[in-house]
């Protein structure tokens, strides 16, 4: 018979689902919102493949609920911190993800968020619409510019490098990066490898594009914010877990740093009563880094191709090794 694929949402981009429907017996969580955990555990039973998203926790309990016939977990994301990779390996379950195809989209959004935060766009738009715009004023709505600035990028993988290439076009003075390993691409981008502390101390803009792993968990803590300039703008488009969020809130409230732009938070969605929503020097986006139409379509196709390849015992186009 046909292989069984379970898709955790009913609103995944259609191009990927069309590919799966041609060869497989595909079932979906049938409501537009994410499946409650208990439902997810019920629905994965007996499936050969799971097409999931970063909001689905793929842990031992879920793998047990799926059963031993599960061959592949394929996530429509580049991040895989929601997947228990070690547990999948132990069970011989292959993992698919979507690197590369969202790099440009996420780098674009990172620049958009950086400019939105530093040039106070949400505040300015609000003022324009609500009567705060009484005349042109020389020091009103001012913020730090990118030209001549030092930009520090933490996590210099594909996305970090793509951000580096883009900020360079804004006539920045210097690009610093912090990464476990040295990156050959840094030379062409003109980025200099430094220690984490040096990056924090010297950068006017600190951008986090590091994957969430044990070594990066809450690396932006109270001590890290204290080392930043009090004029620094912090931007995070990786995972909320890289930040000690209470420490960030305190740093923003006490002007330890100038402002923050966050596409990722803890938890997600961020509760409406979070102080982050009340701080004028903080911009919060609802995790839309890769939300360019073409990127999302390509991600869906790749997620499906990863499943089909794994079910057929072939090389997956993007397997997490
Ligand atoms: C988005 O955050 C992703 O990991 O794809
Ligand atoms: C990390 O996975 C990146 O693409 O930068």
TrEMBL record:
GO MF term (any one): glyoxylate reductase (NADPH) activity
Domain of life: Eukaryota
Signal peptide coordinates: none
Entry GO CC: cytosol
Parts of the chain that traverse the membrane: none
Keyword terms, alphabetized: Oxidoreductase
D-isomer specific 2-hydroxyacid dehydrogenase catalytic domain residues: 12-319
Residue ranges of every copy of the D-isomer specific 2-hydroxyacid dehydrogenase NAD-binding domain listed in the record: 111-289
Protein family per UniProt: Belongs to the D-isomer specific 2-hydroxyacid dehydrogenase family.
Protein name: Glyoxylate reductase/hydroxypyruvate reductase
Organism classification: Eukaryota, Metazoa, Ecdysozoa, Arthropoda, Hexapoda
């Amino acid at each position: 018979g046909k292989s069984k694929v379970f898709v955790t949402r009913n609103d995944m981009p259609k191009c990927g689902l069309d590919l799966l429907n041609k060869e497989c017996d595909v079932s979906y969580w049938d409501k537009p919102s994410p499946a409650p955990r208990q439902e997810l555990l019920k629905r994965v039973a007996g499936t050969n493949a799971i097409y999931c998203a970063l909001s689905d926790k793929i842990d031992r309990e879920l793998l047990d609920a799926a059963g031993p016939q599960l061959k592949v977990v394929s996530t429509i994301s580049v991040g895989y911190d929601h997947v228990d990779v070690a547990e999948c390996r132990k069970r011989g379950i292959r993992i698919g993800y979507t690197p590369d195809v969202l790099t440009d989209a996420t780098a674009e959004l990172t620049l958009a968020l950086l400019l939105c935060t530093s040039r106070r766009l949400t505040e300015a738009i609000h003022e324009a619409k609500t009567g705060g715009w009484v005349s042109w004023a020389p020091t009103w709505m001012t913020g730090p510019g990118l030209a001549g600035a030092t930009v520090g990028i933490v996590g210099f993988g594909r996305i970090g490098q793509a951000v580096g290439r883009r900020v360079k076009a804004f006539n920045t003075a210097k690009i610093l990066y912090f990464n476990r390993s040295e990156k050959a691409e840094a030379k062409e981008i003109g980025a200099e490898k430094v220690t984490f502390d040096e990056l924090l101390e010297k950068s006017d803009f600190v951008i986090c594009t590091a994957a969430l792993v044990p070594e990066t968990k809450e690396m932006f803590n109270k001590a890290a914010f204290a080392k930043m300039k009090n004029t620094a703008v912090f931007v995070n488009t990786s995972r909320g877990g890289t930040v000690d969020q209470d420490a960030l809130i305190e740093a923003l409230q006490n002007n330890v740093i100038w402002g923050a732009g966050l596409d990722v938070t803890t938890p997600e969605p961020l509760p409406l009563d979070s102080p982050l929503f009340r701080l004028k020097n903080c911009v919060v986006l609802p995790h839309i880094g890769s939300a360019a139409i073409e990127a999302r379509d390509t991600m869906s196709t790749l997620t499906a191709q990863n499943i089909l390849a794994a079910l057929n015992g072939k090389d997956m186009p993007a397997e997490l090794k």
